Amino acid sequence: MLTSVTRTQAPAGKQMLSEQVYAHLRDAIMRGIYAPGAALKPQDLAKEQGVSLAVVREALVRLVGEGLADRLPNRGFAVPAFSDRRWQEIAEARRTIEPVVLRMSIERGDLDWESRVRAAHHRLDRTPPYEPDNGEYYTEAWSEAHRVFHRTLLEGCGNPVLLETFDRMWIASELARRWSAHRDPDRDGIAEHRRLEEAALTRDADTAAQVLAQHLTLTAAALTDAALTDAALTDAALTDAAQTDAAQTN
């Protein structure tokens, strides 16, 4: 009897540890503690977290499934690199899929969906996007309110597979957006979200799809600019380092 209990508890304990390691790594990646392209070495993480290698690998595989880590052939795991091509592909996928799902949502959504859209927009509209302590980064509260609003708009479609696809794409684009940490003073995000809410609630599918596509296009453009800026800064830093090494050698 004791053996049976032990066998039941062991997998449960491993699963709990894996969940904890996963949550820790996910938060660290989203907060930028691990830089874009940084290696995620299972051995080092296992030692750091005080868990087995199997527990860490399970957590890393889950992160790969969410697009928050890459599995590299013969090189282990790494944080996704911040490349223009990667985020443009994500943006293209979102612009292709989300307006279509929004049309379905407007067609199928009931009164309860309308109420949830209105409530989600109200929460987003009333949540400050920035705080002095966060510098250029969006607050956690605003980021979550932003996600909920966009997801709620699509939930009227009633298709869990499409919503799961949205969830995965959102995580990937959210990671890029957090890394960019650049504000666009000329962009009126509040007005964009208000137009989305109004078009959805008036059941104007054409306008809603058009506004959403434009909204996603502007976001993609901002991330591309950030990627190019960061790449230029990285190249400049590497050049300076190489020149310094050369000067010291001479």
Structural summary, described in words:
By secondary structure, this protein is mainly alpha-helical. It is 74% helix and 3% strand. It is built from nine helices and three strands, in the order H-E-H-H-E-E-H-H-H-H-H-H. The chain has helices spanning 2-30, 42-49, 53-65, 84-108, 111-126, 140-155, 160-180, 189-201, 205-249; strands spanning 39-40, 70-72, 76-78. A three-stranded antiparallel β-sheet has the order 1-3-2. A hairpin with a 3-residue loop joins strand 2 and strand 3. Helix 2 crosses helix 3, helix 4 (84-108) packs antiparallel against helix 9 (205-249) and helix 6 runs antiparallel to helix 7. The chain is elongated. InterPro entries: GntR_C, TF_FadR/GntR_C, Tscrpt_reg_HTH_GntR, WH-like_DNA-bd_sf, WH_DNA-bd_sf.
What is the gist of this entry?
By secondary structure, this protein is mostly helical. It contains nine helices and three strands, in the order H-E-H-H-E-E-H-H-H-H-H-H.
